[in-house]
Amino acid sequence: MKALVYTGPKTLVFRDEPDPQANEDVVVKVDVCGICGSDMHAYLGHDERRPPPQILGHEAAGVATSGAYKGRRVALNPLVTCGTCDACRGGRPHVCRSRQIMSMMPRAGAFAELVRAPEQNLVPIPEGLATDIAALTEPLAVGYHAVNLGERALHMPLAAARVAVIGGGAIGLCVAQVLESRGARNILIAETSAIRRVRLESKGRFGAYDPASTPPAAASMDLVLDAYGGTASRSEACRLVAPGGAIVHIGLGSAEGGIDVRKLTLQEVTFIGSYCYTPVEFRETLAGLAAGIFGPIDWTEARPLSEGGTAFAELAAGKVASAKILLKM
Questions:
Q1: Structural domain boundaries enclosing 52
Q2: Of the N and C termini of the chain, which has fewer Cβ atoms inside 10 Å?
Q3: Are residues 98 and 148 in the same domain?
Q4: Spatial CA neighbour of 169 closest among 50, 251, 240, 274
Q5: pTM
Q6: Within a domain: residue 290?
Q7: What pLDDT shows up at residue 23?
Q8: Are residues 22 and 144 in the same domain?
């Protein structure tokens, strides 16, 4: 099969790789796979969990070649869990201690013509939903889970809350669209990139601001969702959150710095880490996409998998206006 292989920092090679063997899994013929921020971290050499050589990519959809869904279009839930531990049996398999994720050793990712996955990780795509849109179930499910956590932590309805999303990339947009679908009406998105702010403001649905020059007042937000997860974004989240409010931390930009522990304590702010989603949330997100409840998904562009190396380089250089590049087989 042809695959896009990460072979070292800022190096991707489109080459032949051995076809995956199904064994106890199902082999899926990949139609499309999105480039995620975590793929970019690996490409830049910043993710020790994805050492080269490795096939990246986990936001995928395609056609199952065997099993109960043979011949059907499926979205791939890339999070593989043991199914037997307390977390799995308690309905929280996303925090399974034995979890694996496609694109992270020992599992190959989906920037390839074929990928293998457990049958329980395949979710049939509803009729009428484009495969390209179904591939976005994974990032939207990340936002769906984060909003679920934030909504539970709030002491008011989302419709009454002042909400800030930090980061206007794909995950930030997914979070904002899920918030909107839940009734949130006062949503601000912090984004340092001018090209992204223009794109966000052109939608006419969300306010966008540059945290370096036009930040909202301190302690002005009831709920803050950090879709970047770096020192500066955590500092901004702590600055923005109102007393008794909540911060949901999603991004994995960097591991340390930016948390004002004194403020979190004295103002009883809830700080929640948000990772992935449950299988139920993944299925609910796909159903929501089919029903159109998240609004227009018009922030992607498609390129051939063979041009993936150029796409990564342009993303790294900040030359891409779209929030998501989809690589097509």
A1: 2-136+297-328
A2: N
A3: no
A4: 251
A5: 0.96
A6: no
A7: 87
A8: no
